[in-house]
Write a structure and sequence with these properties.
Elements lengths: L2 H23 L2 H24 L10 H4 L4 H22 L2 H7 L3 H34 L7 H25 L2 H21 L3 H10 L1 H5 L15 H25 L3
């Protein structure tokens, strides 16, 4: 592709990304949600770390304990992601967005890029703050890269999962409800299943139960799925949701 052709493609993409960034940063609600995700992640992590009495020789999985807040912060991230496009459908503003950016795929990609960039910043700050709180409140805590990096990726995938679902169902409330059910109801259902084999299978395919395995550093053999494989399961759910959202966006009228 020639440089002129590349510039012709990049120009509209840049403008679409800039437009989506402008939408996000000019909405006070989005900033409060981003701050809420950081505060929820660090706050719950610090609370749980401070509540545990653990000295040298402790058998608790301290890197995982110090990242407990991710399980709360993910809910705020999911709500933010659902609102990025869901609110436009709810208010009818999506028609304006499609008029400004006629390429629906370009619009969808721009929303995903802006969402991932802003969520990445909030995730890194939240995870770093949680790890720091763990080091201060848990003397026996040792930093491990995988749970920290994996938690940031986990939150990014949650954002994509919620964005894809919101685009597919065209409702921020419905999308957030589905994602929250996957987060908190699925593990309860898996635990309630009497058959241990089926309970293990549900943990292996559940987006959050599998994805959260990336935080575990002890007794890995007892996990229903490996840490990175579990994050891969969440990634497949996110990809499926994004594909479903894209198909609905490009094939149905606004």
């Amino acid at each position: 592709m020639s440089s002129t052709a590349r510039d012709a493609v990049r120009g509209p993409v840049r403008r679409a990304v800039h437009a989506e960034w402008t939408k996000l940063r000019t909405s006070a609600g989005n900033w409060w949600l981003l701050l809420g995700a950081v505060a929820a992640t660090i706050g719950l992590s610090a609370f749980v770390s401070g509540a545990i009495s653990c000295v040298a020789g402790c058998t608790a999985d301290l890197p995982k304990v110090s990242l407990t807040g991710v399980q709360l912060g993910q809910a705020v991230v999911a709500i933010l992601a659902a609102m990025v496009i869901g609110n436009e459908y709810a208010t009818g503003m999506v028609r304006v967005s499609l008029a400004a950016v006629p390429g629906r795929t370009r619009l969808f990609v721009a929303k995903a890029v802006v969402l991932l960039a802003t969520t990445a910043v909030a995730s890194v700050v939240g995870v770093a703050g949680s790890v720091l709180a763990g080091r201060v409140l848990l003397p026996a805590h040792e930093f491990v890269w995988r749970p920290a990096v994996g938690s940031v990726l986990y939150l990014e995938l949650v954002a994509l999962l919620s964005l894809g679902l919101a685009t597919a169902v065209r409702s921020p409330a419905a999308a957030a409800g589905i994602v929250l059910a996957l987060m908190y109801a699925w593990p309860i259902v898996a635990l309630a299943v009497g058959d241990k084999a089926w309970s293990r299978r549900l943990d292996q395919i559940g987006p959050m139960t599998a994805g959260a395995a990336v935080q575990v550093t002890k007794d890995l053999a007892a996990l229903p799925i490996g840490p990175w494989a579990g994050l891969g399961v969440l990634a497949l759910w996110a990809v499926a949701a994004m594909l479903a959202g894209w198909v609905v966006l490009v094939r149905r009228d606004a």
